[in-house]
Amino acid sequence: MKCPFCNNLNTNVIDKRPNDSFDVNRRRRECEKCSKRFTTYERIEWNNPTVVKKDGSRVRFERDKVLNGLLKACEKRSISREVIEKAVDDIENEIRNKNKNEIQSKYIGELVIKKLKSIDKVAYIRFASVYREFADLASFEKELKLLKKRKR
């Protein structure tokens, strides 16, 4: 594995851990040249389904897009990267378990919404405001009322 700091090709694995579902290995590495440490992840490569977007266009599913959406929604919240990564893993597993070649973007969005609602209500509202295209304050208020009602 190439060191991201000095591009040296010789690195040592100093710690290796699987995640809870044993489908991802986290490796802590150290560069032999600059002695800096970094983390790599090894996961099973699978055939990504095609995502059918609202406008009918089709793109390959990209885990990083889901991760970036969650990171943006959780920005400046006290949510660990591990919790976010676990949420993305769960979403990816649900998509994989559907065992379909094509999947609607709406389905992925609803999976993200469901995960965020259980992780952090503020992150959920942030994501929902973009995903559900809230047009005005009334849209926010309506969603907040629903959230409060479900909480009781």
Descriptors:
152 residues, 2 domains, alpha+beta, 46% helix, 3-stranded mixed β-sheet, 21% strand, 6 strands, 5 helices, 3-stranded antiparallel β-sheet
What this model shows, in words?
By secondary structure, this protein is α+β, with helices and mostly antiparallel strands. The chain has 2 domains: 1-45; 46-151. The protein is built from 5 helices and 6 strands; from the N terminus they run βββββααβααα.
How much helix, percentage-wise, in residues? 40-55%
Tell me the β content.
Answer: 15-25%
- Radius of gyration using CA atoms only: 19 Å
What global shape is seen?
globular
The profile of the biggest β sheet is:
3 strands, antiparallel
The overall number of domains is: 2
For the largest sheet, list the strands in their spatial order: 1-2-3
Report low-confidence residues grouped into runs of 5 or more. Answer: none
Q: What is the count of DSSP helices, taking H or I runs of 4+ residues?
A: 5
Q: How many strand units?
A: 6
The sequence of SSEs as H and E is EEEEEHHEHHH
How much is the average pLDDT? 90
Global structural class? alpha+beta
Please give the alpha-carbon distance between the first and last residues.
51 Å
Structure at a glance:
The protein folds into 2 domains: 1-45; 46-151. Strand 4 and strand 5 form a beta hairpin.
Topology diagram in text:
Blueprint: E1 11-18, E2 24-31, E3 37-43, E4 50-52, E5 58-60, H1 63-73, H2 81-98, E6 102-104, H3 105-119, H4 121-131, H5 137-151
Parallel strand pairs: 4-6
Antiparallel strand pairs: 1-2, 2-3, 4-5
Helix pairs in contact: 1-2, 1-4, 2-3, 3-4
